[in-house]
Amino acid sequence: MLLSLPQLRDATEAHFTCLTEREFAERQREEGARVISHRGRYWTQLGAPGFFQPIHMLARLTPEEATPPTLLAWGYRAALTPETASAANGMLPVVRLKDLDTYDMDRLTSNRRNKLRKAQRLVRIVQLTGPALLLEQGYGVVREALARTQHKQPPTLDEYLKDVRKYFISDHWCVLAGLIDGKLGGYADGYVVDGVAYGINAYYASWALPTNISTGMNYAFAQLCRRLKGVTTLVNGLHAREVPELVQFKDDMGYVVDSIPIKWGMNPVAQALIRWRRPHAYYRLTGKE
C-alpha cells in the first residue's frame, strides 16, 4: 500500500514548521537565495534581477523601512503597516482565503463541492517527507503542466533537481502530492511565515485533471493550514485577471482579492517598458493600470 512506503504521510496527519521572518531569511539563504538585510527587514529578488520585495510578501513595513534595499535595485515594493497606509502609492492585489478559521466545504459553490467529492474519491493526497517520488515522476509532471499553462518557462532538469532538494533541506516546506492509482498526478508546495500561509507552486499532469485533483489539493492545503496553530491567513498568489478560468476557480474555492497598500518605486524606463509590454504584470507589481 502506498502509505506504507517511506517518505509519504497522509495529508490529514501532515505538519511542518512555521517560521518567523528572521528564520525564513536564514532558511532562504541556506537554499541559495540572495537575501538582503535592510533596516531590520529581509528582502529578496522577485522575477528579473534587480527588483526586490520583502521575503515575507505580506510583512507590514513602515515607510522608513520600505525603501530600496540596495543601490543596484531598479525597482522595489513593500506592504505598509495599517497605520501608515496613507503613504501608499500603489496596491498589492492579493488572493486570500476568506475566514480561514471557519473554512470548510460549505464555503465552496455547489458545483465545486461536487468536484471536491470526486477528487476525494479518486485522489489520495499525501505529504512528501523526502524527494523519492518527485525524483522519479515529478519532472515530467512539471514540464507537462507548464507546457499547458505557459505561465513561466519550464525548468531544466538541473534546475528542477535543485528545487526538489531545497524542499528537504529543512522542515518548513510543505509539499503535498496527489496520487492516482499509484501514480503522481500533481503536487503543490507552500510554507508559513509569521502566521501567513503561502501557496507557492502547483503542477498537475493533464491526464489527472478529470479527477479534479486541483480542487482536492487546494482544499487539503487549506485544511492543513487551518489546523496549524497561529496561522491566520492563506494567500494563493496574486490576482491573475487575464486568466478568467483561474479567477473563477479561486472564486469557487472561497478566495477573495484584497488590495494591500504598498510603497513602490521603479526605474522610469523599466516602468514604461513593463507597463507597455506586460500590463498585467505591471498591475500585479504596483496595483496600477
Q: Supply the CATH architecture.
A: 3-Layer(aba) Sandwich
Number of domains: 1
H/E topology pattern: EHEEEEEHEHHEEEHEHEHH
Please give the largest β-sheet: 12 strands, mixed
The overall pLDDT, averaged over residues, is: 95
CATH class equals Alpha Beta
Helix content: 25-40%
Number of strands: 12
Give the number of helices.
8
CATH fold node name: Aminopeptidase
Overall shape: it is globular
In percent, how much strand structure appears in the residues? 25-35%
Distance between the termini: 52 Å
**CATH-level-4 superfamily name:** Gcn5-related N-acetyltransferase (GNAT)
Radius of gyration computed on alpha carbons: 19 Å
